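Hi V.,

Quick status before I head out on leave. The structure for the redesign project is tokenized and pasted below; the design run finished overnight.
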């Protein structure tokens, strides 16, 4: 498993109003900063309890739970409910949270939740990481994109599994290089073509990082997986 420093961006955007709030303790500020490190523009994030303890250096999980409780009460974060997104009451394994920059933001859209996935550490992206009790909440079923294969599904072929790995490697590489999120559903078809051509996740990730660097130098947009495939002469 990669170290946390290799698995997330090295900065955090925290609500400015928190720094002027004398009622917040260091504990709450550190946990808010840790949550914010994985949040997208809509504030959506779901780092596991393992990740939050790692980032904040708190050994006791109860410390994290207590800080989360205070941050919710003071409207620095909001816990998102699966039923608001047509999920069952136990539709997510790890609870989704929204960092509230101003305190009165509307609920994020389902798309805003989906595009936050690449910003979570790889071990937390589907809520299937170290935290068996769902990170910051009760045991729940993992959310799942209908186009994404489920690990262990006997119907999956080697090509399908490789395509899934390629797609996720591309998404993680784009986020690492540009800070931008890409949707799995928009890229999986190109991932299948790359898998059919015999490519693997490692070489696609390396090529994605290279193509992103070139795009940034040209001040071009975020490259799609099709752009990466063309650069690999597929």
């Amino acid at each position: 498993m990669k170290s946390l420093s290799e698995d997330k961006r090295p900065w955090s955007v925290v609500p400015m109003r928190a720094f002027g709030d004398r009622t917040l303790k260091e504990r709450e500020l550190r946990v808010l900063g840790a949550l914010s490190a994985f949040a997208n523009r809509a504030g959506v994030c779901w780092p596991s309890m393992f990740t939050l303890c790692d980032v904040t250096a708190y050994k006791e999980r109860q410390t994290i739970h207590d800080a989360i409780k205070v941050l919710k009460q003071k409207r620095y974060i909001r816990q998102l409910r699966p039923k608001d997104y047509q999920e069952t009451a136990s539709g997510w394994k790890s609870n989704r949270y929204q960092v509230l920059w101003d305190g009165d933001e509307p609920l994020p859209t389902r798309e805003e939740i989906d595009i936050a996935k690449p910003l979570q550490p790889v071990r937390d992206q589907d809520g299937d990481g170290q935290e068996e009790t769902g990170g910051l909440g009760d045991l729940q079923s993992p959310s799942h994109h209908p186009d994404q294969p489920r690990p262990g599904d006997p119907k999956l072929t080697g090509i399908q599994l490789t395509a899934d790995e390629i797609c996720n490697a591309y998404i993680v590489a784009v986020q690492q290089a540009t800070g931008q999120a890409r949707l799995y559903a928009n890229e999986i078809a190109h991932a299948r073509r790359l898998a059919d051509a015999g490519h693997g996740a490692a070489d696609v990730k390396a090529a994605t990082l290279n193509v992103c660097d070139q795009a940034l130098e040209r001040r071009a947009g975020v490259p799609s997986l099709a752009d990466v495939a063309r650069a690999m002469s597929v």
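Above is the designed sequence. The radius of gyration is 18 Å.

G. will cover questions while I'm gone.

Best,
W.
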